[in-house]
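Practice record 12: protein with RRO.
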Amino acid sequence: MQSLSGKVGGLSLRNPIMLAAGILGTSGSSLKRAALAGAGCVVTKSIGIEPRDGHPGPTIVQVDCGFLNAMGLPNPGYREFQEEINLARLGGVPVVASIFGAAEDFGEIALSLKADAFELNLSCPHAKCFGAELGRHPEIVEAVTRDVKEKAEVPVWVKLTPNTADIVELGLAAQDGGADAVVAVNTLKAMAIDIEMGIPILGNSYGGLSGPAIKPVAVKCVYDLSANLKIPVIGVGGVSSWQDAVEMIMAGAYGVQVGTALYRGYEVIHNITEGLLRYLERKSLTLEELRGMAQRGS
Ligand code: RRO
């Protein structure tokens, strides 16, 4: 009898399919709904120290094969957000708090916010002084990770940017800082232009591309990180079907996050977990045997 349960990045999960950080993680009730829809764990929207309104609109635009967003890290600040995490926990699965800030802010949040794990957002592609502006420097990734590891009592995951020449270098830096897992990848820097007006569509001019268009990029990042890191890699980027999840796991992923595909409804989580289980049964494979299969075959 195949099972999807197991340990991922220091958390015991009923299955490896997770709600990715993003717009569905802004409220406890939406996180709880994703948990009740079958997710193995849920990741919150990125939370900082102080409340932020985010970038001016439009903040999201649909493009071929995905979405462009430049939300700009809107959030109520960690002091206000604890009650949303407490509500989300009623969903019965671990709640991972995505956190961001200046390099010195992460430790303060990790000391105060109570969650089952932290995911360090060192990869938002369009926020001045935050996200990838820090996370493209391996020495900052290592220092922030080490600081949070010293202060947090729960596992620490580091979400990496694909907007770099060498994501493995960033993954190794997170590992050296003591990370329990890396999460690959955040969105790719991108832009759409309104050809009638002759101006960029997003209020912030550019943003991050998510959805099916970025899945092959994410699979390659997961593959390279898995081949070179000792800590688990969690795959995210354009996963919208159980076949995509199988591909990520074959590349080496211990967990698979789903974000943009949720615009079709929460049932996509159930469809992916069910499809993955049926696939393992049909192939008489365990999750462990599936994981990294493409590494061994190449
Ligand atoms: O809030 C955002 O605009 C945002 C974040 Br924090 C992120 O990590 N990635 C992204 O595409 N958008």
